[in-house]
Every structure is written in C-alpha cells, then in structure tokens.
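Course exercise 7: structure representation. Students receive a sequence record and must write out the corresponding structure in token form. The form below is the worked example handed out in class, using 4-hydroxy-tetrahydrodipicolinate synthase (303 residues). Read each field label carefully; the graders check that inputs and outputs are placed in the correct fields and that the protein name is recorded exactly as given.

STUDENT ID: A-19
EXERCISE PROTEIN: 4-hydroxy-tetrahydrodipicolinate synthase
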Amino acid sequence: MPDLSAPWRGVHVATALPFRDDDELSVDYEGYAAHVRFLAEHGCDGVCPNGSLGEYQTLTDEERARVVRVAVEAAPEGFGVMPGVAAYGALESRRWAEQAREAGARAVLALPPNSYRADREAVVGHYREVARAGLPVVAYNNPHDTKIDLTPELLAELHGEGLIAAVKEFSGDVRRAYEIAERAPGLDLLIGADDVLLELGLSGAVGWIAGYPNAIPDASVELYRLATSGAGADLEKALPLYRALHPLLRWDSRTEFVQAIKASMDLAGLRGGSCRPPRSRLAGEVAARVVRETETVLALGYR
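STUDENT ANSWER:
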C-alpha cells in the first residue's frame, strides 16, 4: 500500500470519463462513479479526474466540478482523489484547486500555464498561486503539449520554495529521474507516461499517474508493483509482463490516446464509449491496430 500521508503515491488512474449516447454527449456520472469503485476494487490507489484522459477541456465548469465531487463520493476509505486543475491562468487553476479541496480531495495535479509559453518567473508565479489553495501540489511536466519544460533545475526551485510535493514526469526522457533526485532529493517522482513505467520505476519513482489501468487494471497494478524499486523490484517477472503490455502502453503517449484507451475499455467489457468533439472514434488502420493489440493482451489473460 502507498504511504497515505503522501496521497499522490501508488497507482493513480487518469480516469476516462463516460458520456451518454444522447445528442449532447452528457456526462454519465453514475457510470463514472462505478468506474472509480471498479478501479479501487482492482487494486489501484486513487484516481485523477479532469485530466486530458477525462476530456476536461470539453467540460462546462459545472460538469468539471461535479466530476470531482462524484469521484470523492465514490472513493472508498484510503482511496485517493487527485484532480487535475489545469487552466489558462494561475487564478483559474487556484480556484479549481480550492474546489478540489472543498470537495474533499487531498492533493491536486497542476500543469504550468496552459496554452501560454510562460517564462520562468510566470511559471513560478503560477505554482505559487495554485499552492495558495492549501493542498499538496503535484506538478505535471508535459512539454510536448504545454511547450513549457519543467526542467530538473526549475523543479528544484519550485520544490525548494515548498510549492510542489511531486512531479508527474511526461517528458519521455528517463535520464531526468536521476538529475531530479540530485537537485531535489525530497521531490517525489511519479511515472507520467505508461510506456516508460519500467525505466522510471527502476530509477526510484514512487507513483504512477496511469492511463491503461482504465482497461487492464489488474495487470497494470501488478506491473507497477514489480517494477518500482521501492516495492522491491522483480525484473525477472516485470520485464516479460512489460514486453507483453508495451504495445498497448505506447498509446498513452500518442495523439489518439483517449480514443485508444476508451476503445480498449470497450473490448475489455468496460464502459469506454464515445469522446466529445474534437475527438472522434478511431477508424482505419489506427483503429485496427488498437483492436489487434488489445485483443492480443486480453487473449494472454491480462485484465
């Protein structure tokens, strides 16, 4: 079990959000609550609502706030809820962090300024504002989408000022784990991309903000436990499982990751379903690949 005094540790699933098949693609809150309970029952340690996998950019403010409340209400005791608080500006991110706190969340996941290529001063100011909400902040480094790189040096500055407790590292550069540990020894490293789980797990990661446990939670949790050095990594068992799952895990780092994971959920007998625009269902060879790779994993008995 993860350290409950550090509620960002362990396997936190960046949850997909189910929509109803009506004209508005309205949010299926009951289905979402059932999915949160399902993940808890299958060994995950928490959820991260309102991330990109949860299509937060397409939600109204009312929907986004209700998703957090539903997750908190559905979570059993000891199961974490760490909402994403991404927004264009610091004030809006801080307000989402306050909403998360009022709903009962114990930590938040915060991108740097969204859609604005901020300089160092603006990035630090952004995290100062989010930290004012009073919850532990996990920084989310995704330079591919935000065009802002939370380098090890910048993370050390944020951590040294007490603004962040951990970082979801999604740069894809697994070498960074060691420099982060050197520059900010007390900063928790969380695996941010499914397809570098083993590499970051062995380098000392204490958590995983994960996509594919939405579809195959049992195998994903087993892989995390085998791959993380703090849990006593077992490479002999972890490596063959990682190889078997890796074709699916790679989708988490691709443009179509939301549709791919939802399609895999459908094939696994779970509720994936449609995405809201601008995302549409996969088609052609991309869809065929997701189906082939998911069916291969399921045929091996992984769930």
